[in-house]
Write a structure and sequence with these properties.
The chain has 7 helices and 14 strands. It has 342 residues and is α+β, with helices and mostly antiparallel strands. It has 2 domains: 89 residues, Glutamine synthetase, N-terminal domain (Ubiquitin-like (UB roll)), CATH 3.10.20; 238 residues, Creatine Kinase, Chain A, domain 2 (2-Layer Sandwich), CATH 3.30.590. The strands form 2 sheets. Strands 6, 7, 8, 9, 10, 11, 12, 13 and 14 form a 9-stranded mixed beta sheet that branches. It has a 5-stranded mixed beta sheet with strand order 2-1-5-4-3, with helices on one face. Helix 2 runs antiparallel to helix 7 and helix 4 packs across helix 7. Catalyzes the ATP-dependent biosynthesis of glutamine from glutamate and ammonia.
Length: 342
């Protein structure tokens, strides 16, 4: 009987930024289907999710895909539940109100490949600074692109796993890269981002390269763009609007809840959202067509399609939890859609 390796992946309880955890479960004659993944448990006292005297937390499988790096392997993304089966307080996925998958999300995940020895991004000299940003974005060549072997391997592995990666590119700083993932359904979009992050972390191990998800790892005073996780989103109202007025109403609904969004858009975002480097200030809200300095950008493609398309919230940072980002966006858009419908 063939045996399969199921890598159960979950988010711990560390604050302000949760980390990935995983462990392997061996199953005999496994079908490869999500419904045949058993519930499992772990020691929550070791992950900041339970006290030692009552330490069991449950792992509920919610997404599965092949693990291309392991023979007979599968990657199983899980929600964390309390021992009584209720969602754990760290479970952002359970807060998403999108049962009919009406919301579609495309996340643009930026990150730095980080050299643990120099404590700098790949491509940065051990002493001093590289040439200013400009030649690195979407670059090619050994003088400007650093770590391509890692990101190419990551792309292949993600595609082999069946993740819906829609593209990759070098970003504006040496060693800074991006991948984009799209899914019809907020929960699956979050699942796929987390699994892709997991795969990138694991690939980095084999190169002795760390993955730095911090939104401003070079410091607030450094003249480099930070790292974001821009959230492109739509629902039926946005995809079929055919009206600038509908887009204005939905965008304006974000203005009164700036603090609520920033609260789940990633730690230390004040270091990134300064009004410089293609960002709006953290305490301000703006939107505009093709405006990368706005809080929300209306893509030119949306306008060209007769105001039928999507919006891009540029504020979520690279370390944000896509589940929590999606949950907050959905809540705001739904409140605006109800007013538009009325």
């Amino acid at each position: 009987m063939a045996k399969s390796k199921l890598e159960y992946i979950w988010l711990d309880g560390y604050k302000p930024t949760q980390s990935l955890r995983s462990k392997t479960k061996i199953e005999g004659d496994f079908s490869g289907k999500l419904e045949d993944c058993p519930m499992w448990s772990f020691d929550g006292s070791s992950t900041e999710q339970a006290p030692g005297g009552s330490s069991d937390c449950l792992l509920k499988p919610v997404f599965i895909c092949p693990d291309p790096q392991r023979k007979n392997g599968y990657l199983v993304m899980c929600e964390v539940l309390n021992a009584d089966g209720t969602p754990h307080e760290t479970n952002g996925r359970a807060t998403i109100d999108d049962d009919d998958n009406d919301f579609w999300f495309g996340f643009e995940q930026e990150y730095f490949l980080w050299d643990p020895e120099t404590n700098k991004p790949l491509g940065f000299p051990a002493e001093g600074e590289p040439a200013p940003q400009g030649p690195y974005y979407c670059s090619v060549g050994a003088k400007n692109a650093f770590g391509r072997n890692i990101i190419e391997e990551h792309l292949d592995v993600c595609l082999d796993a069946g993740l819906n990666v829609e593209g990759i590119n070098a970003e504006v700083a040496p060693g800074q890269w991006e991948f984009q993932i799209f899914a019809k359904g907020a929960q699956e979009a979050g699942d796929q981002i987390w699994v892709a992050r997991y795969l990138l972390e694991r690939i980095g191990e084999s190169y002795d390269v760390a993955i730095n998800w911090h939104c401003k790892p070079l410091g607030v005073d450094a003249d480099w763009n930070g790292s974001g996780m821009h959230a492109n989103f739509s629902n039926t109202a946005l995809r079929t609007a055919g009206s600038k007025d509908v887009y204005d109403a939905i965008c304006q609904s974000f203005a009164p809840v700036v603090k609520e969004h920033i609260a789940v858009y990633g730690a230390d975002n004040h270091l990134r959202l300064t009004g410089k480097h293609e960002t709006q200030s953290i305490d301000q809200f703006s939107y505009g067509i093709s405006d990368r300095g706005a809080s929300i950008r209306i893509p030119i493609a949306t306008v060209e399609r007769g105001w039928k398309g999507w919006l891009e919230d540029r504020r979520p940072n690279s370390a944000a939890d896509p589940y929590k980002v999606a949950a907050r966006i959905i809540k705001t858009v739904k409140s605006a859609s109800e007013l538009v419908a009325a």
